[in-house]
Design a protein that fits this description.
- By secondary structure, the chain is α+β, with helices and mostly antiparallel strands.
- It has one domain (3-236): Aminohydrolase, N-terminal nucleophile (Ntn) domain (Glutamine Phosphoribosylpyrophosphate, subunit 1, domain 1, 4-Layer Sandwich).
- It has 5 helices and 12 strands.
- It has helices at 53-67, 82-105, 156-162, 169-186, 217-236; strands spanning 3-9, 12-17, 20-22, 28-30, 34-39, 43-51, 113-121, 127-131, 137-139, 146-150, 194-200, 209-212.
- Strands 10-1-2-11-12 form a 5-stranded antiparallel sheet, with helices on one face.
- A hairpin with a 2-residue loop joins strand 1 (3-9) and strand 2.
- Helix 1 packs across helix 2 (82-105).
- The longest helix is centred in the middle third of the chain and has 24 residues, at 82-105.
- It is globular.
- The chain starts with a strand and ends with a helix.
């Protein structure tokens, strides 16, 4: 399984994903689930994936191949808007899902995947979409400025309480990391290392990126401080 989260804020987009992929307790591996594309000064796009590795890797391979072909109208680097980027990713995901599903059904197996697509093209606003296996999607809004895929239930409460469009990028980074920390503590199918990225509004380039390893001291300090803060808050609340 996996956990990926994206925030759509006035100040930009914040993305975080884990890297654990498992096909049973004795078959655990690390695969990147965040993919970043940019044409500096023109557009910046981030894609995060969850679900069947056979589907997500095929989708990303097809998108990368289209980007390398100058006249390919399915390239996300040439789409005239983020909406059309989402439509291209959705169409590719739908095609691959259909191809894989037909093969898997013959063996009484199933495979699905979903994706988060976020970014900005010059002349348009920052946008973020959750793409479903069928290729349809929903969009983040001011009312719900974050999207999650994978094991999302453990990390959702802090986002519900903290995140709003005006949240600063610094606070947003803290929120997604604590959201991930809660998920790591509650679900063994989500694991380190983590991939983090920021796309600042109207920068049209990938901003700060970071790979957070299991022995990262800063993340460990944040996790410990959050646990201590929760324990202290719990002790201070009176029973009803």
């Amino acid at each position: 399984m996996t956990y990926c989260v994206g925030l759509l804020l006035d100040a930009g987009v914040v993305l975080l994903s884990d890297t654990r992929t498992n096909a049973g307790l004795d078959n655990i591996a690390t695969y990147r689930k965040m993919f970043l594309f940019e044409q500096p000064g023109e557009r910046a796009i981030g894609i995060m994936t969850a679900g069947s590795l056979s589907i997500t890797q095929t989708v990303m391979a097809r998108l990368a191949d289209a980007n390398e072909q100058p006249d390919n109208d399915r390239s996300i680097l040439r789409a005239p808007s983020m909406l059309q980027v989402a439509e291209l990713v959705g169409a590719t995901l739908s095609d691959v899902t259909s191809d894989v599903k037909s093969k898997m059904e013959r063996m009484s197996q199933n495979a699905t995947a979903s994706m988060i697509v976020a970014g900005q093209r010059k002349g348009g606003p920052m946008r973020m979409f959750l793409i479903y296996p069928e290729g349809n999607f929903i969009e983040a809004t001011a009312d719900t400025p974050f999207l999650q895929i994978g094991e999302h239930k453990y990390g959702k409460p802090i986002l519900d309480r903290v995140i709003e469009p005006g949240t600063s990028l610094g606070d947003a980074e803290k929120a997604v990391l604590l959201s991930m920390d809660s998920t790591l503590r509650s679900n063994l199918s989500v694991g380190m290392p983590l991939d983090f990225a920021v796309i600042e509004a109207d920068s049209f380039k990938i901003g700060r990126t970071r790979r957070i390893e299991a022995d990262d001291e800063g993340f460990a300090r944040m996790s410990a401080a959050w646990s201590e803060a929760l324990r202290n808050a719990f002790q201070e609340i009176d029973p009803i």
